[in-house]
Design brief:
Blueprint (H helix, E strand, L loop, with lengths): L3 E3 L12 E7 L4 E6 L4 E6 L7 E4 L10 E4 L6 E5 L4 E6 L5 E6 L2 E6 L11 E5 L5 H6 E8 L5 E7 L12 E6 L6 E8 L2 E6 L5 E6 L4 E7 L6 E9 L6 E7 L4 E7 L3 E6 L5 E6 L4 E8 L5 E7 L13 E4 L16
Parallel strand pairs: 1-23
Antiparallel strand pairs: 2-3, 3-4, 4-7, 5-6, 6-26, 8-9, 9-10, 10-11, 12-13, 13-14, 14-15, 16-17, 17-18, 18-19, 20-21, 21-22, 22-23, 24-25, 25-26
């Protein structure tokens, strides 16, 4: 029996339209996340002391281990408006600077002394500049910094409800660790989403939402090339789409299910499902490990207009016994 847990209360309440891309900085004890379509970066200072938690048992299996859920709190927050869609962010050696996948490519932003004022992006590499139609209708979505310092992120159609007959025109791009080269790794993608690397750095795992597929690739850490794609698993529930994901040091994937109101914990070697975590938010977007011991799972969600009592747009946080994350990889290239 697969244990199922219900996480009923949010940890933070930013009321995002499309919350995504949480990233924890151990250097500053801060959480960053994006509100994609609003062009916002929210930064929360970590708690100064102990937080209030509740212990939650599995709904369907009294013998399953209990999890810890964090109660609603209020942390110091600052918001940065970059003035355009921003799909994902990555950490850099400079605490006040982030690298991002923005509307037109890879860019950096300086958060220093920001309130809610605009902070213009500094583009490192723009894509589609030679194709005006693609340049205007595409944006970057999810991504991640690889263990060698490259920043990978994928592009997709900005308006998913557009009349484009073929939505599979997105690309997964790789920005080199020094920031001097941007190259495509994968093409014909409709909605590129979560990325992670197995703890031994031998494999890259990528979720593609439109095809409901999670694929595992052999990864050459020296060259950044991928090969030998294998479908690890598919989400076979209609209208449930794999979104962002993260991986634990123990090798378990935690995968958000858009319009499925849940996170699935799966084995990264077999794809077998090990646990389900349910939320009062239909559009769960991305989990990420963080906290001083990297044992807290921070979960972003998106608003779900028209659905009564849906808590989409808020943030949840919980801990799973025996599961710890890997510190965030750092992009070290030009900013």
């Amino acid at each position: 029996m697969v244990p199922e847990y219900t996480i009923s209360q949010p940890y933070l309440t930013p009321s995002c339209v499309l919350g995504e891309g949480p990233a924890y900085s151990s250097e500053t004890n801060e959480w960053h996340l994006v509100d994609i379509t609003e062009g916002l970066i929210h930064t929360y200072s970590g708690p100064a002391g102990e937080e209030k938690t509740v212990t939650v048992s599995a709904d369907n299996d009294s013998s399953a281990p209990q999890i810890t859920v964090f109660e609603t709190t209020d942390l110091l927050k600052r918001t940065t408006n970059v003035g355009e869609a921003i799909g994902v962010l990555g950490l850099t050696p400079l605490p006040s600077k982030l690298v991002v996948g923005a509307q037109h490519g890879f860019a950096s932003v300086d958060l220093a002394s920001s309130g809610t004022e605009n902070k213009p992006l500094n583009y490192i590499a723009k894509v589609y500049e030679d194709d005006e139609a693609m340049y205007n209708k595409m944006r970057f979505n999810d991504g991640f910094v690889d263990p060698a310092g490259r920043f990978l992120a994928g592009s997709m159609i900005y308006d998913e409800n557009s009349d484009d007959k073929d939505r599979f025109i997105g690309t997964l791009f790789s920005l080199s660790a020094d920031g001097t080269e941007c190259k495509p790794l994968l093409g014909k993608i409709a909605c590129p989403n979560g990325l992670c690397w197995t703890p031994d750095n031998k494999f890259m795992i990528h979720s593609e939402s439109a095809s409901q597929t999670i694929t595992k690739y052999s990864y050459d850490l020296t060259t950044g090339e991928i090969s030998n794609p294998q479908v690890l698993f598919k989400i076979d529930v209609p209208n449930n789409y794999p979104d962002g994901l993260c991986i634990s040091r123990q090798g378990d994937i935690f995968l958000a299910i858009w319009e499925g109101a849940r996170i699935e914990q799966r084995d990264s070697k077999t794809g077998d499902i090990k646990a389900i975590y349910k939320f009062p938010a239909g559009r769960v977007t991305c989990p990420a490990f963080g906290g001083k011991n990297f044992d807290e799972i921070f979960v972003t969600t998106a608003a779900y207009p028209g659905i009564e009592n849906d808590l989409g747009g808020q943030i949840f946080k919980f801990k799973v016994p025996g599961q710890t994350g890997i510190p965030r990889n750092i992009y070290t290239g030009k900013l």
